[in-house]
UniProtKB/TrEMBL annotation:
Keywords: Cell adhesion, Disulfide bond, Immunoglobulin domain, Membrane, Repeat, Signal, Transmembrane, Transmembrane helix. This is Down syndrome cell adhesion molecule isoform. One of its GO terms (biological process) is cell differentiation. Residues 544-553 have a biased composition (Polar residues). Residues 66-166, 266-353, 357-449, 583-676, 680-775 form the Fibronectin type-III domain. The lineage of its organism: Eukaryota, Metazoa, Ecdysozoa, Arthropoda, Crustacea. It comes from Penaeus vannamei. It is a single-pass membrane protein. It is found in: Membrane. One of its GO terms (cellular component) is membrane. It holds the Pfam family fn3. Residues 446-525 form the Ig-like domain. Residues 566-583 have a biased composition (Pro residues).
Length: 868
């Protein structure tokens, strides 16, 4: 036999021949087979009688090739549908497909890679139980090309956590919270909704919330200060996280109470009257506290003649006051934060009482049968002195002799005394209530020897500055004493201002403060000496607006020298009116700080002018503005001027008043309340774009502690000069909608916000969505990256070079190729390829592509994306 085997030049194939007994043997061996080795092998045997052929079919089986043309046909928030083209597998039917799925941040070797199996006859699969707004990669085998996909977003599925609310002032509460778990964001968090001021609803009643908007800072713990709240009021707060798909669930309610503040109004209907049970006290009543603006428990802060008294009742007895004295009484409500506004002063008088004892008493010998007794008026008369009672007793007699004298008598010559006999004298004074205590007892023994004696009573001297005053030095003695005056141990030089008087007194003309000092009158003869001292302190001489010349010879020179008389002129007497005092000196005024609605100032008195301060006047005005005044209680040393305008300069000065009148004004200080012009939000927080309308979230503007008064909105198509104006929108308006816009059109937008501190205008550009709605679900996520509140310019086709890539820096303004945005997203590339554009800024990389009419977004960020 002859055997012919068709041979191949393939080195992996070899042909073997042999001659077994009784026949011929041949074989074909194929090594390293591949599917390409599949073939029909024919073995033909031939001899002299003919030939015979045997056909053998070789089929080489292998794993399938990678599926081709992977694409996403439908995207949802929790599932996507993918399709592919079946790979060639001629020798082996495909039994099933294995889909490997992972998130973008997980490696293929990770245990978290999911595997899904589908029937071999199917060329599509639904990937379910996915997380919203997540980027996934999928593939069938290591040799296939991974394909990135992103699920559609959903509203966040969890609320902010660790929400806390703390009152930080009487008008503000600070909210702090942490973002929910990133797996529950279901997209990029755009911000949080927080409620506006909301009073705590009654227990058991339904609550409804309206919300303000807070942006995402990305710094871990978020915070927001809610202002313009009511003082000392409990509030309830909730939060919601939101993304482009809407808000998530409400957080757990948290509660906070604003801090206490000083009461804003004075008590009403304040009355006072003498308290007969308390002697020299006053019964003060404030039956109506300043509710509802008290902001906490009330206690009275009563000031009477500069003396404070406190209590928690609505009436108080003020004791330990001077009898028969006028008091100016004010009452203020107070909280733990401080004392509030005082009520208008109410003038009250304490009851008359018996007087104190005369301040001093002295007796001087005037002959063998007479003496002169002199005394000073009581320090506190406690009423009008109606009489003096002089008591005389000659021991060992027990019962004294009383002599009643008129109230103007301050000395008396006592005659008809026995020579060389001891006598005791004392004096009392009386009012209509009764007789007061007695003065100390003095004694004297009349004698023919009369040494020098001065019966003028010294003491403190007070006189108006610029007036003339006489310091008396009434004296007796035989022989006539020699008199001399000294000032602070130095002899008084007699000149035109210091003149000695015939009766021994010293006349000081045109009194000045430089005349202060101790003045001493000395009298002496050969039998003895005596002296009297007058104390003229620095504040003893004050300006007098009614200057009166004093007659140094006021006393009647013809009267008998040893008879009863009225007191010598200007003998110190607390029972007679004091000379006028000087107005107070200017106070030192300081600023202690400010809030958005108040300014606190403090002050220190330098000199009250020698008379108690009766009231204070704070004069202030805004800049610009008219001067205004507020009267303050004299006991205050600081004051908070409230209900002011935020972000405004104020000028203030303070004037103190005493019985003379207003003193010099303090220096004018300038204080600015807190607050500044509104701050514009980024575009993604302000603008929500649709096909034919745009919604402006006006609450995204930051008022900078100064409430926004109103908004105004201007807008126009980018290619037109006509500008449309919204008119004046109230600052409380939360949203404003611009309707009747053209689809897929660029617009220029200008928003102005104004508050008392000024106004801010921000310019924006936006593009309405196309009519086809392609990409609508993703465009809200795209807009924050494509726009800022810096001007946005829309240009024509991209440059001829690299038409599929347009790079720019968003911080310098974005240029979006019109064709790349409209044609790529709506019509697609005519050749089925990819068109679009790229945008880059630090930390961001974004690309829009359209492949075979299918919108695929987003591609993998090259850098970690902030805000995407």
């Amino acid at each position: 036999y002859s055997v012919e085997v068709v041979e191949d030049s393939d080195p992996d194939r070899s042909v073997g021949k042999g001659s077994p007994a009784g026949g011929v043997r041949a074989e074909v061996r194929v090594t390293n087979v591949t599917p390409q080795d599949s073939a029909v092998i024919a073995c033909t045997a031939t001899n002299a009688y003919g030939s015979h052929t045997h056909n053998m079919e070789l089929k080489v089986q292998d794993v399938p090739e990678a599926p081709r043309d992977l694409r996403v046909t439908r995207e949802g928030s929790r599932s996507v549908t993918v399709t592919w083209a079946a790979p060639p597998s001629p020798n082996t039917p495909i039994t099933h497909y294995v889909i490997h799925l992972k998130t973008q941040t997980v490696s293929w070797e990770s245990n978290s890679v999911r595997q899904l199996r589908t029937e071999g006859s199917s060329t599509s699969a639904v990937l379910e139980d996915l997380l919203p707004a997540k980027v996934f990669q999928r593939g069938e085998s290591p040799s296939s090309e991974p394909l990135s996909l992103r699920t559609d977003g959903e509203a966040p599925s969890a609320a902010p956590v660790t929400v806390r609310a703390v009152g930080v002032s009487s008008r503000e509460v600070q909210l702090t919270w942490a973002a929910p778990d990133p797996d529950t964001w279901n997209g990029q968090l755009l911000g949080y909704y927080t409620p506006p001021p909301l009073f705590l609803s009654p227990v058991g009643s339904g609550r409804s919330f309206s919300f303000d908007t807070v942006g995402v800072t990305g710094g871990g713990e978020e915070s927001w200060t809610v202002g313009n709240l009511e003082k000392f009021t409990r509030y309830v707060f909730v939060l919601q996280a939101f993304n482009a798909k809407g808000p998530g669930p409400l957080s757990t309610e948290v509660f906070a109470t604003t801090l206490e503040d000083v009461p804003e109004a004075p008590p009403e209907d304040v009355t006072c009257c003498p308290d007969l049970d308390a002697g020299g006290g006053l019964l003060v009543a404030a039956p109506r506290p300043p509710r509802p603006r008290t902001h906490h428990h009330v206690h009275a802060d009563l000031h009477a003649h500069g003396r404070p008294y406190r209590g928690r009742d609505r009436s108080a007895t003020v004791g330990d006051l001077e009898r028969y004295s006028n008091y100016s009484v004010t009452v203020a409500a107070a909280t733990r934060a401080g004392v509030g506004v005082s009520s208008p002063p109410v003038v009250c008088a304490t009851e008359e009482d018996v007087p104190q004892a005369p301040r001093t008493i002295k007796v001087v010998m005037n002959g063998p049968n007479s003496v002169i007794v002199a005394w000073a008026a009581p320090q506190r008369a406690h009423g009008t002195v109606t009489k003096y009672i002089l008591y005389r007793r000659a021991p060992p007699a027990r019962d004294p002799i009383r002599r009643i004298l008129p109230p103007q008598t301050l000395w008396l010559e006592v005659t008809d005394l026995a020579s060389n006999h001891l006598y005791e004298f004392w004096v009392t004074s009386a009012t209509r209530v009764g007789e007061g205590p007695a003065s100390p007892v003095v004694s004297a023994t009349p004698s023919a020897t009369v040494s020098s004696g001065i019966y003028s009573v010294g003491g403190e001297v007070r006189a108006g500055r610029g007036t003339d005053v006489v310091l008396p030095c009434q004296h007796v003695g035989r022989p006539t004493p020699t008199l001399s005056w000294r000032r602070d141990n130095a002899p008084v030089t007699h000149d035109s201002r210091y003149e000695p008087q015939l009766d021994g007194g010293l006349l000081i003309r045109d009194c000045q403060r430089s005349d202060s000092g101790n003045y001493t009158c000395h009298a002496s003869n050969r039998h003895g000496s005596d002296h009297v001292v007058y104390h003229a302190h620095r504040h003893g001489f004050y300006p007098n607006h009614q200057t009166k010349n004093i007659n140094p010879n006021h006393q009647d020179e013809q009267r008998p020298p040893y008879s009863s008389s009225t007191p010598p002129p200007f003998l110190p007497s607390s029972n007679s009116p004091s000379p006028p005092a000087v107005p107070p000196a200017a106070v030192l005024l300081h600023s202690m700080g400010s809030t958005s609605t108040s300014v606190t100032v403090s002050w220190r008195h330098v000199d009250d002018g020698g008379a108690p301060v009766r009231k204070l006047t704070l004069t202030w005005r805004p800049d610009p503005g008219e001067w205004r005044e507020v009267t303050l209680a004299r006991h205050l040393t600081q004051y908070t001027l409230g209900e002011l305008t935020c972000g405004t300069e104020y000028h203030l000065y303070l004037t103190s008043h005493n019985k003379i009148g207003p003193g010099a004004a303090s220096e004018v200080i300038t204080v600015r309340t807190k607050g500044s012009r509104p701050s514009p939000p980024p575009q993604h927080r302000l603008i929500s774009v649709n096909t034919t309308a745009v919604t402006l979230r006006l609450t995204s503007w930051a008022d900078q502690q100064c409430p926004i008064a109103h908004f105004s909105v201007r807008f126009r198509p980018s290619n037109q000069g006509l500008q449309m104006v919204s008119g004046r929108l109230p600052g409380s308006q939360k949203e404003y909608a611009l309707g009747d816009l053209a689809p897929a059109t660029s617009y220029e937008l200008s928003v102005t916000a104004q508050n008392p501190a000024g106004e801010t205008t921000a310019a924006y550009n936006f593009i309405t969505l196309g009519l086809t709605g392609v990409g609508c679900s993703e465009l809200p996520l795209l807009l924050p990256l494509l726009t800022t509140h810096t001007p946005l310019s829309i240009t024509g086709p991209p440059p001829p070079k690299k038409p599929r890539e347009k790079k720019t820096n968003l911080d310098q303004g974005v240029r979006i190729p019109t064709e790349a945005l409209t044609e790529a997203l709506q019509k697609g590339a005519p050749d089925g390829g990819a068109v679009g554009g790229r945008w880059r800024r630090p930390g961001h990389f974004f690309q829009i592509t359209r492949r075979d009419g299918q919108y695929n977004e987003p591609t993998t960020p090259r850098f970690p994306a902030r805000g995407l």
